[in-house]
């Protein structure tokens, strides 16, 4: 989406090379200049399309570079700076791929983690891991060396996949926001089933493919003297290119963030706007606390995404409108910094889950137990075990029992006591009914629809 800084500088260099070809040069220089003159018209025509060379799909597409013999590249960096940038990008890729793969394993390998919200988190993790693995380093190398080493097919993929992955990521977050909204604001409605969730995820990817398809369709490989380029050549030129990327920014940034901002604002007011009326039982307070934790975690995920991608989108718009900025000496460093920040969004989510959710934290400990400084406690093992749900006749709430291994000794003399206790629990008017006092039963029933519903469980919010 952003222009590569050196485009206009190289254009001027190409013009200078054409003039050199007319002068009195040595035989060697005449050969180089003649070759440059032969491609000059085609080269400058190409620069018209790539003067605001954009990464077709969130990747930076460097501008056509000069033949090495005659043109100087003002953006060549010293070795120490290249090493630092390589380390920074390498850390992003390593953390993003490892962290998101562990997130996917935690959710799919443990039945207790297979909730509607977590299925969307799997989709989000897959998108982030894929973009980090297949896009980040390739685009960094292209931006650094201004030469495409990876062939025509990967050029199409490189231009196509990043937009697809970002679309899938942010609309997975949007689906989670809408799901949280429905669960908290209108809890009596049935939740999405596993089949419906898969249909939503499939629909997200189909729309992502459609949005990114033009990038694949118009991708081109251009072999220049001593240089190979990968770019998108739009039929109607730069204006069409700019319009498309403005549409992409709206669809993959502005619109979903607006939806999530509205839904999480309403949910936040509902959850934090005031205390529950009455002196309700501990179960209600526990579920309210769990809901707040989940919503807080997802708000942090969304805000992190918005902050990471904002400088990249601003960079693209500003350099497209004020193209003279592409000649600025430090513009390449600005681009590499903004692109690094955008790509780093793929590595933060696993860290956020681990810090703010006890089950994800337990899962990361299990996955990384081979590290000498990580110890897995019995509590961590228990957190990921399956729970049983026993619906009672008197309440829509579920009684949750963890499947713990224990030894129980029965005394035959306790049989009558057990029967009598069962009869007491069956009486709705009993003071201990459902864990709340009789005095607070009215207020408890008033808030039950706010705190819980027959379609959700405690696991959904823990």
UniProtKB/TrEMBL annotation:
Biased-composition ranges, Low complexity, are 442-456
How does this protein sit in the membrane? Multi-pass membrane protein
Which residues are in the G-protein coupled receptors family 1 profile domain? Answer: 99-353
TM regions (residue ranges): 82-108, 120-145, 157-178, 199-221, 241-273, 294-322, 334-356
* Taxonomy, superkingdom: Eukaryota
User: Which subcellular locations apply to this protein?
Assistant: Cell membrane
> What family is this protein classified in?
Belongs to the G-protein coupled receptor 1 family.
- Name it: Neuromedin-K receptor
Source organism: Dipodomys ordii
* Taxonomic lineage: Eukaryota, Metazoa, Chordata, Craniata, Vertebrata
Q: Which gene encodes it?
A: Tacr3
